[in-house]
Amino acid sequence: MANFYIALLHYPVYNKNGQVVTTSVTNLDVHDIARAARTYGVKRFYIVTPIIAQQQLVGKILQHWQQGYGADYNPSREKAFQIAGIKSTLDEVVGEIAKEVRNLRLVATGASLTGRLSTFGELRSQFRESDDSYLLMFGTGWGMAQELLARADYLLESIKGVADYNHLSVRSAVSVVLDRLCGREADKL
């Protein structure tokens, strides 16, 4: 399977009024996405925020679980956080990954994407058949700003449940997407 990465983008994203904003990093997102990413073989998980205070907060969370008491108390959490990193922009993420890989493809996710959408099955096949690497981009708030979506090589179909409600937390969406793309049962979907 191809190398793949995750970026959790806190800017530029929309708020519920359609304005471009920076959202706050949440402790639960950092913990849960790092654990899901490690479970599904993600090469690196990036938390992306331009706000220095938020970067420092994430740094403290990561440090706590990677060193000293936190690492001793919960070694599996320390292992999950080994793949986590902090960046200010998507460009920084892409630049770092580009040092390791030749062809990086950007995949945008979202609950209300439109246009030519790739299905989970199509993207899963791409992962298996291609030598390319993939960056799965997840937006916070009310989704990624158009400038981020415009950079994507692929727009992934949204997760559809059985109800008319469609507003998962980002950490839930990451887990579902990872399982559909990389889970052992994914080929049966």
Helix/strand layout:
Layout: E1 4-9, E2 13-14, E3 20-21, H1 27-39, E4 44-48, H2 52-66, H3 68-73, H4 75-81, E5 84-87, H5 90-98, E6 104-108, H6 120-129, E7 133-139, H7 146-149, E8 154-155, H8 170-182
Parallel strand pairs: 1-4, 1-7, 4-5, 6-7, 6-8
Antiparallel strand pairs: 2-3
Helix pairs in contact: 1-4, 1-8, 6-8
3D architecture notes:
- The protein has one domain (4-188): 3-Layer(aba) Sandwich (Alpha/beta knot).
- Helix content is 41%, strand content 17%.
- It has helices at 27-39, 52-66, 68-73, 75-81, 90-98, 120-129, 146-149, 170-182; strands spanning 4-9, 13-14, 20-21, 44-48, 84-87, 104-108, 133-139, 154-155.
- A hairpin with a 5-residue loop joins strand 2 and strand 3.
Question: Main attributes?
Answer:
Alpha/beta knot; 189 residues; two-stranded antiparallel sheet; six-stranded parallel β-sheet
Averaged pLDDT, please?
A: 93
End-to-end separation in angstroms reads 18 Å
CATH superfamily: SPOUT methyltransferase, trefoil knot domain
Name the quaternary structure: single chain
Please give the radius of gyration in angstroms: 16 Å
Bin the helical content: 40-55%
Q: Largest sheet, if any?
A: 6 strands, parallel
Contiguous helical run count: 8
Overall SS class: alpha/beta
**What's the total number of strands?**
8
Number of domains: 1
Which strand order spans the largest sheet, edge to edge or round the barrel? 5-4-1-7-6-8
